[in-house]
Amino acid sequence: LAKTTQPISMDSYEGQEVNITCSHNNIATNDYITWYQQFPSQGPRFIIQGYKTKVTNEVASLFIPADRKSSTLSLPRVSLSDTAVYYCLVGSYGGATNKLIFGTGTLLAVQP
Amino acid sequence: EAQVTQNPRYLITVTGKKLTVTCSQNMNHEYMSWYRQDPGLGLRQIYYSMNVEVTDKGDVPEGYKVSRKEKRNFPLILESPSPNQTSLYFCASSSRGSGGAGEQFFGPGTRLTVL
Prior knowledge:
The complex is a heterodimer of chains A (112) and B (115). Chain A has 112 residues and is an all-beta fold. Chain A is built from no helices and 10 strands. In chain A, the strands form 2 sheets. In chain A, strands 1, 3, 4, 8, 9 and 10 form a 6-stranded mixed β-sheet that branches. In chain A, β6 and β7 form a beta hairpin. Chain A is globular and about 45 Å long. The relative contact order of chain A is 0.34. Chain B is mainly beta. Chain B has no helices and 11 strands. Chain B has strands spanning 4-7, 10-13, 19-25, 31-38, 42-51, 54-57, 65-66, 76-78, 87-94, 105-106, 110-114. In chain B, the strands form 2 sheets. In chain B, strands 2, 4, 5, 6, 9, 10 and 11 form a 7-stranded mixed β-sheet that branches. A 4-stranded antiparallel β-sheet of chain B has the order 1-3-8-7, with no helix packed on it. In chain B, a hairpin with a 3-residue loop joins β4 and β5. At the A-B interface, β3, β4, β8 and β9 of A face β4, β5 and β10 of B.
């Protein structure tokens, strides 16, 4: 099972672009990379998912290099409301196992 | 409204008193899962279910049981709770889709305290 490693915390200022990296050296061929956002006392919320190269949606971009051993979540022009914990998850359904392994999360603190 | 519901939201109990936390989803999802969240440890998967009558252990299954008799419900059972099971619990569901791990929809959480 792929284990993920993320920075424990990051600081940023409003309006800046934030990049959070997740390492997953043992990612399996069938595994996808998914990022979630969590606010205090709430369940995590899906942000973005990808398999390789780059994926972009209305809130974030996900960059995955060719070897897929890491991934970077990019949040453009963060605001105070983006202060939250961000989790990287690696896994898939239908592979050797259907377990889903979350990382320990990165606390992003956005300051004015 | 598409949602995952959990009950109760808060529970204080004593060691050894059996309890059940219910989880229900209205999105016809195949995959359901239970997680616990503890400070500094992130989200750890307890059990998951790929469909009705199909369940399997996650990373931290000891002391827990689950059942999946209906597609929409996935209760978490603590037969003999202990203080180390004091935690914040989340239920989640997702569609298997065509690949990946699917977008998981999480419930609001159940904060359990075992005295």
